[in-house]
Write a structure and sequence with these properties.
Elements lengths: L4 E4 L3 H12 L4 E4 L14 E2 L13 H19 L4 E3 L2 E4 L3 H11 L2 H4 L2 E2 L3 H10 L6 E4 L3 E3 L1 H13 L4 E3 L20 E3 L19 E10 L8 E3 L3 E4 L5 E4 L13 H14 L4 E11 L8 E4 L6 E5 L5 H18 L15
Parallel strand pairs: 1-2, 1-10, 2-9, 5-12, 10-17
Antiparallel strand pairs: 3-8, 4-8, 5-7, 6-7, 11-14, 11-15, 12-13, 13-14, 16-17
Bound molecules: flavin-adenine dinucleotide.
């Protein structure tokens, strides 16, 4: 009998688990409520293959990036609109030590394949728009997922899918995080940072980080289609504005945008971009992070009906599709999860 699986939370994690389970023929009940601090409605969705300070190739990039591209391309084909945009990343080198790191990394073939020198137009942007006394280089293979649009598209598609039942009455108690009671049947918890209030999952090593970004108008446009990554990142949007972020804070998760974050963002933008800018809006969300910074996927060791996808951290667009696939394989075919992401690591 095809008993429906219940998914609690419909951010990036919930949407990706839903995609994978539907692909495997499951029926779903989705428990969906947008609560303060949700990350995905504000997620900038960048994928940067060399995101670390020392330009290391991202962990499991060779598995996670193809899974992400495959998932987003399949959803784009089904919905008929672009959601993931490939985009070069203009990385500003911070200081002399980073410049030396870069020289060393360029000698490693596995890193060098993600790097190229700036084109003449990009050089012009660096010279006239950016503050880059130690230079800049281009990371290839990255881009950004329009996460809010992705969620809209997924919600619309799943609302008209007869295999999916949204917020059925029997799941009402699951919507109250502090009273999260086991439901009947298999449940996958995709609650983002709020998992730390869930009695089933609160013992995991949660370390959520509040993040803020601003939407701005750059008075002198960059002149090239790139994401800038320096003291802050600048992500130009199709409408001519840009997102600028992001901050990290470890408290006040339910509070709205803060004056402190705005000061930090303005300072970092002025340290990255040399032109004037106009602030249009400020946005806030909470990244679901656990202390080892790896995704969390798997089964509760004491309550085998309960599963989780969490811990997507600052890299949900990259690791979400890969982790959701592995989770669905574990649920449906009993496949073993990689030790590093298995939720069981918190229950030993
Ligand atoms: C400022 C900022 C910048 C970021 N930048 C990037 C980036 O550039 N690249 C990148 O890949 N990632 C980035 N991220 C991270 C990325 O957005 C997250 O990893 C991802 O969105 C997490 O998705 P999630 O579904 O796990 O959590 P969420 O998006 O928080 O979704 C959880 C959902 O579950 C709902 N929920 C919770 N409990 C319940 C319940 N009991 N009942 C019903 N609903 C419930 C919540 O309301 C929410 O809608 C950023 C995040 C922030 C905040």
């Amino acid at each position: 009998m095809n008993v429906p699986v219940t998914i609690v939370g419909f951010g990036l994690a919930g949407a990706l688990v839903a995609t994978e389970l539907l692909r495997r023929g499951r029926r779903l009940r989705i428990v969906d409520e947008t609560l303060p601090g949700a990350a995905s409605p504000v997620g900038p969705g960048q994928i940067n293959p060399l995101a670390t300070r020392r330009f290391r190739v991202g962990w499991k990039l060779d598995e996670a990036l193809p899974a992400a591209l495959d998932t987003y391309r399949a959803i784009e084909a089904a919905c008929g609109e672009p959601l993931y945009r490939e985009c070069p990343i203009l990385r500003v080198v911070k200081d002399q030590a980073q410049a030396e790191d870069l020289e060393n990394r360029r000698k490693e073939p596995e890193t060098a394949r993600w790097i190229r020198g700036p084109s003449p137009a990009e050089q012009q942007c660096i010279a006239t728009r950016l503050r880059a006394p130690f230079g800049a280089f281009v990371t290839v293979g990255g881009g950004w997922l329009d996460v809010p649009r992705f969620l809209e598209v997924m919600r619309r598609a799943l609302h008209s899918d007869p295999r999916v039942h949204w917020n059925p009455p029997e799941t009402a108690t699951l919507r109250n995080p502090s009273a999260a009671l086991p439901a009947s049947g298999t449940t996958v918890w995709c609650e983002g940072w709020r998992a730390r209030h869930n009695p089933l999952w609160r013992h995991m090593d949660h370390n959520p980080a509040k993040g803020e970004w601003m939407r701005v108008r750059l008075c002198e446009p960059l002149g090239v289609k790139v994401i800038v990554n320096g003291p802050c990142w600048i992500l130009p949007l199709p409408d001519g504005t840009a997102r600028v972020g992001a901050t990290y804070a470890w408290s006040s998760f339910e509070a709205g945008p803060s004056a402190d974050a705005r000061v930090t963002l303005v300072k970092n933008l002025a340290a990255t971009y040399s032109g004037a800018f106009e602030i249009l809006s400020q946005h806030v969300g909470v990244r679901p992070i656990v202390r080892d910074t790896r995704p969390v996927a798997g089964r509760h060791p004491k309550h085998p009906e309960h599963w989780i996808l969490n811990g997507l951290g600052s890299k949900g667009a990259l690791y979400g599709p890969w982790a959701a696939r592995l989770l669905a394989d574990a649920m449906e075919a009993g496949a073993a999860l990689p030790r590093e992401i298995d939720a069981a690591r918190f229950f030993r």
